[in-house]
Specification:
Strand order of the largest sheet: 1-4-2-3
Structural class: alpha+beta
CATH architecture of one domain: Alpha-Beta Complex
Strand content: 5-15%
Number of strands: 6
Helix content: 25-40%
CATH topology of one domain: Conserved hypothetical protein from pyrococcus furiosus pfu- 392566-001, ParB domain
Shape: rod-shaped
Distance between the termini: 73 Å
Length: about 240
Amino acid sequence: MKDLIAHPCPSADRRIEMRAVAELTPARRHARTHSKKQIRQIAQSIETFGFLNAVLVDPKGRVIAGHGRVLAALLLKMTHVPTLEISHLSETEIRAYVIADNRLAELAGWDKELLALELQDLLTIDLNFDLGVIGFEAPEIDLLVQGLAPERDPDDDLTERDAAGPPVTRVGDLWRLGAHAILCADAREPQSYARLMGASAPAWSSPTRPTTCRSTATSPASAPPGTASSRAPPAR
């Protein structure tokens, strides 16, 4: 609190001014780097949304924050940019703030679920600009959106079966599902196929015995007509 009182921020006296880009100079020992790709991205953002963040400068016109925006302005051949003069900090404090302004932004994170939801919504809107201007490339956006958990359909939730209650399906039950049928029966018994398919004989079957109960293999002679074999596969 003491430092805040020592460095009041007279916002009423601070105004954004348009200054010539040629009059601005970079901060001494500016350690933050900007690749050509990033400068192009900043330039695309300025073209799409406008120059929304003023460049912070000291009374001598040296850039305190906004070096990337100045470089993007040069790429766009802009002659003037909005600036905000900072006069209440000492030279040492400005040097420290230049580092803090860049480093503190790096320490922020993303709530990836909320980010993915926001990107998903933007993808469904008919935008009048390329979504790439936000800094995420198309593969990154796809991965984030694909990582979202699908919305659960209440109809997909299965009721837990009460092991102590009566069984829902017993051997011999035949369930009709439109044109389909499911029979609870022994796949090694010829009569199971007759009940399930009537006069139509299967061309081939590959039954698998339940892993939770013992079963003895039957001979190939007991296989229903038209099947390769009804012998139960050996335990693995």
